[in-house]
Amino acid sequence: MLYYRTMNASEHKLPELLAPAGNLACALAAFDAGADAVYAGLKRFNARERTENFSREEMAKLIAYARKNDRKVYVTFNTLVKESELLAAAEELAELNTLRPDALIVQDLGIVRILREYFPGLAIHGSTQMGLNNSAGLAMAKELGLSRVILERQTTLKELEQMMKSRPPVEVEIFIHGALCCCISGTCLLSSWLGGWSGNRGKCKQPCRRRHHSKNGNGFFLSSQDLCTLEILPKIIATGVSSLKIEGRLRRADYVENVVSAYRMVMKAESEEEFREILPAAKERLSHTCGRRWSLGYYTPDSAKHLIKYDAMGVSGLLCGKVIAHSRNGFEVSASRRISLGDTIRIQPQSGDEGPAHCITKMSLNGKSVASVSKGERCFIHSDKEVPRGGIVYKISERVGDFSKRIDTLPEWKPPADLEVFVSCGEFRVKCGGIEWKKELSLSEAGTRPLLPETIAKEFRQLSFARFTCGRVSAEITGNPFLPASVFKTLRKEFRDYLDRHGNAETAEQESRKSLERFRRDYDSLHAKPDKRPWPDCAIVPGRKHPEFTEKLRIVRELEAGPAPGEEVLLPFFIAENALEHVREALREYVKKGGRVIRISSLSHLSLVKEFPGVVVKSCMPMPICNSMAVQEAAVRGIAMVQAWLELERTELEAMISKSVLPVEIYQYGRPPLLSTRAEIAAGDRMTDLRGETFLVEHTGDLTQILSEKVMSIPPLRGAAAGLYDLRHAVLHEKKTSRFNFDFRLE
Predict the structure, then answer these.
(1) Element (H, E) at 223
(2) Which of 119, 190, 415, 586 is such that its CA lies 20 to 30 A from the CA of 228?
């Protein structure tokens, strides 16, 4: 095995260790344990809305603390946004632009556009929810203005190595630890289909953790094990990725502290021998976390094959007992391991559905209050929550140190002011929102250790102003000046004193307000543009045969079906890195034969179709177009027609169409895949959950897809340019149908 530290230090440095933070305690625990950065969300527009999340004031304090301690904070804004939410989303983005986090993690194409056009100072990271998994996607991310991509979690280690060898134009971040979703990121419709709670909007009800019935028996056929990459971490680091991400914003501070500590231990190893010595201790540290069984996820073929243990309940935590009795003020538990005050437990129903969580504040043994109970004892846990009868008790968090005093002493937020620093041998100059301060110098040339822009930025971020805090810092160095530390310290102090005396500089808050008002004006004036071209209804059909009625429609075929020139071609939404060249060749053959319409189902496809400037490009599910801002971005990228995201309800579809600058197609009929995965599913060709919902299991290439027994069928929509009939897994006039979210509010 090639050990990462054998590489030349000038060519390769350790990647960032990035930890989850569901609240301030988790963030402080992560930094204490050795995290370089944390990612966290506000109360709305983030993919973990079930966790505590941050208020604006808490986020401001976290960002100020991180900047003071040379750490980073990335804010999650990684959900799909409906048309009616765009103004609220823009207001939140303006707030974030004021707070100046180090980056925003984004999924929605419309939000990418708003950030780039109205808040260009905020760095953008492409969420794993964008589903980018190949070098074509990384190239497209750069064009969109993203500085980093968080790769889709079903990317293999071999594919990662291939991508990184091509020197991608953006930073690459990957998951190294935590819970895994069975579905390819950004494409899951299962929770939404079963009740309108969208996993793409942070509302997932985790139906994949439920028990299902099949002809092969009963089991948790969609419930994957957790990811743990400690054993292959050197190989991952050797690829040259920029950031190693730990999943877990729903977790508590004890989990974050233990996981970050374990991975930091391994990252400190300086040889393969030292790595092998440290590994057992790191694993032991991880054993204190409450999670599912560990695996290598999708990184190796063998792990992906055995990722789903359908005979084990898909819940996280340490099994610690069973509920054996109930009363009005609590419940009795037969303990199978130690349980203590301060522990957080989850009481799991036998169905596999998510059960209620409870932090133990009072417990009794034989009528007397106790601080803990041991294996084999029966205790009474005082609670006003209703718990499932016969529920299985899992410990999901243990008591940790109290962070409340540290949180109370975090510095108050001050409006950030951005600095532009210019240094030469003869001058030191700083601009700040209309104010300019400068000092003449007479510096000599530097030797072998030149002054670096990042050094200047780091030192300025440590400054404490009376009315401001330091925002973004850019530095431009002319020549090769030698700036002694003592002189630099004096210059910073003089500038700080000057700004405190004359500090009428425009702050980030004022800048954000102006940008928000500009967005509001532009949005109010946005209206649909009439398109007089006739856009035919289309049908996606399998193979060369198709029902007679489709002769009235334009035919769409998947790339592998060999479409004729008069037909449209649909690109597969998931293209592995080693299949990219095959797809390119197939597209060239299609265009060479006279093909003129290509449907893209992933952002990565935009890189592929650039080679064919004369073709008509249409978007298709599962590429989500949810709002008029996303439509505008699609138009800029050369897309001629967009397909509206099929999760949306009628009112949101109509609202988007009313402001769309492109013709909009509606997915009217078909069985859309509710879940697509590279994992092996042992359920046969059909399975049913405990609520009686039946699903079909289809194996296509190296993907397995879960489809509903019911067919999605919605009526034509006023204002839509065309309709799409997806007949890959359906035939016309089926009796069991569903209108999906068409008549209801999508959460």
Answers:
(1) none
(2) 190
pLDDT, tens digit, 9 for 90 and up, residues 249-305: 888 888 999 999 999 999 999 999 999 999 999 999 988 777 678 899 999 999 999
CB 137, CB 604: distance < 8 Å: yes
Helix (H) or strand (E) holding 55: none
Strands 330-335 and 378-382: antiparallel
pTM of the model: 0.89
Secondary structure string (H, E, C) spanning 482-541:
CCCHHHHHHHHHHHHHHHHHHCCCCCHHHHHHHHHHHHHHHHHCCCCCCCCCCCCCEEEC
d(C-alpha 686, C-alpha 706), whole Å: 9
DSSP label of 462: T
Residue 568, amino acid: E
Scored b (16 or more CB within 10 A) or e, 260-294 reads bbbbbbbbebeeeeebeebbeebbebbeebbbbeb
The DSSP code for 388 is -
Place of tokens 């009439």: 530
- Six-digit token pair at 480? 């090769």
How far is the C-alpha of 295 from the C-alpha of 305, rounded, in Å? 11
| DSSP output for 320-347 | EEEEEEEETTEEEEEESS-EETT-EEEE
Amino acid sitting at position 522: D
Report residue 496 as tokens.
Answer: 């700080």
Contacts with 8 (C-beta within 8 Å, 6 or more apart), sequence order: none
Phi, psi of 199 (to 5 degrees): -70, -20
User: Are 575 and 559 spatial neighbours (Cβ–Cβ below 8 Å)?
Assistant: no
HSE toward the beta carbon, residue 742, CA cutoff 13 A: 16
SS3 595: coil
Compute the distance between CA of residue 243 and CA of residue 100 in angstroms, rounded to an integer.
Answer: 20
* 3-class state of residue 178 by DSSP: strand
Phi, psi of 57 (to 5 degrees): -65, -40
Cα–Cα distance between 77 and 371 in angstroms, integer? 41
Q: Mapped to the 3 state alphabet, what secondary structure does 349-383 carry? A: CCCCCCCCEEECCCEEECCEECCEECCCCEEEEEC
- How many whole angstroms separate alpha carbon 110 and alpha carbon 628? 7
Measured in whole angstroms, the distance separating CA 613 from the mean position of its chain's CA atoms is: 32
Tell me the H-state helices in 670-746.
none
Asked if residues 189 and 203 have their Cβ atoms less than 8 Å apart, the reply is no
Cα angle 376, 380, 385 (rounded to 5 degrees) comes to: 130
Q: What is the CA radius of gyration of the chain?
A: 28
| Residue position matching structure tokens 């210059």 | 491
Mind listing the pLDDT tens digit for each residue in 58-79?
999 999 899 888 899 999 999 9
- CA–CA separation, 1 vs 11, rounded Å? 19
Give the Cα separation of 30 and 71 in Å (integer): 11
Is it the case that residue 548 has pLDDT exceeding 60? no
Question: What type of residue is 480?
Answer: N
Q: Which residues of 367-400 are buried (b: 16+ CB within 10 A; e: fewer)?
A: eeebebbeeebebbbebeeebbeebbbbbbbbeb
C-beta separation of 724 from 646 below 8 A: no
